[in-house]
Design goal:
The protein is mostly beta strands. The chain has helices at about 1-10, 130-135; strands at about 15-35, 40-55, 60-70, 70-80, 85-95, 100-110, 110-120, 140-150. The chain has an eight-stranded antiparallel barrel.
Length: about 150
């Protein structure tokens, strides 16, 4: 799979790559069997790497960081830029394990470029008991986040 990803995104040609590193802060709610009214709040802080070919609207992103209540979190996904640099990505949050669909809306701030992100996520907890454990008991999550360039 890694060679396929390298070919699609031309990751072997460093001179044609655009690499960005973002700080991302997310607030969200999860549909869980515990918490208030079966809804639990959460927060995460991630470092997200986004790689793309200069001539391509497709990108690969992966991130890792700290979260509450799960302590750690991480994600990997693929996306595409649309008009005005709005983007749509889909991928897997590694822990708590969920598939996600994310919309990123660019913002221009005094500090530079930023991105407002909205995601909807779904776990496989109903499929398998292992998925239930890996999803930290949640079935669905909704998040809103802010990404800002750090490098």
């Amino acid at each position: 799979m890694a060679p396929l990803i390298s070919q699609v995104f031309n990751l072997d040609e460093e001179s044609r790559q655009v690499n960005n590193i973002y700080g991302e802060i997310n607030l969200g709610v999860a549909d869980t069997p515990f918490g208030w009214w079966n809804v639990s709040p959460g927060v995460s802080v991630l470092m997200v790497h986004r790689k793309q070919n200069k001539d391509c609207k497709l990108f690969l992103e992966y991130g890792y960081g700290l979260a509450l209540p799960t302590i750690i979190t991480g994600k990997v996904g693929f996306g595409v830029y649309g008009k005005s640099n709005t983007n749509l990505s889909a991928g897997v949050r590694v822990f708590p394990s969920h598939g996600y669909l994310r919309l990123g809306i660019p913002l221009k701030t005094k500090q530079g470029m930023a991105e407002l992100g909205f995601s909807i996520e779904k776990s496989g907890r109903e499929i398998n008991p292992t998925f239930r454990a890996l999803s930290f008991g949640s079935d669905r999550m909704l998040t809103v986040g802010l990404c800002m360039d750090i490098l």
